[in-house]
């Protein structure tokens, strides 16, 4: 499912216009992004939790030359599915 498919689905389910559904979907994604940028987590009960995970610095290897390189630490978004979502998928 793409973002445009999601907008169409929301428009049908919530009886909204396509423009209003697009705005609603964009607002939800924007809220999740802004919250994660602050370092907080987003908990959607029954669906799951979006959080920021930290990856430690590590040594790597350049695949072309084989030379060792240092890969810096960074933050990455993560998602853990909730109990209800896991049960629905089974």
From TrEMBL:
The keyword DNA-binding applies. Keywords: DNA condensation, DNA-binding. Residues 56-78 are annotated as: Disordered. GO terms for molecular function: DNA binding; structural constituent of chromatin. It comes from the Bacteria. GO terms for cellular component: cytosol. GO terms for biological process: chromosome condensation. SMART domains: BHL (SM00411). Belongs to the bacterial histone-like protein family. PANTHER family: DNA-BINDING PROTEIN HU, DNA-BINDING PROTEIN HU-BETA. This is DNA-binding protein.
């Amino acid at each position: 499912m793409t973002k445009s498919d999601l907008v169409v689905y929301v428009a049908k389910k919530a009886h909204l216009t396509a423009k209003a559904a697009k705005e609603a979907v964009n607002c939800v994604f924007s809220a999740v992004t802004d919250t994660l940028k602050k370092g907080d987590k987003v908990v959607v009960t029954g669906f799951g939790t979006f959080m920021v995970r930290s990856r430690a610095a590590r040594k790597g290897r350049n695949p072309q030359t084989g030379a060792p390189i240092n890969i810096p630490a960074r933050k990455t978004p993560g998602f853990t599915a909730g109990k209800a979502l896991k049960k629905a998928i089974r």
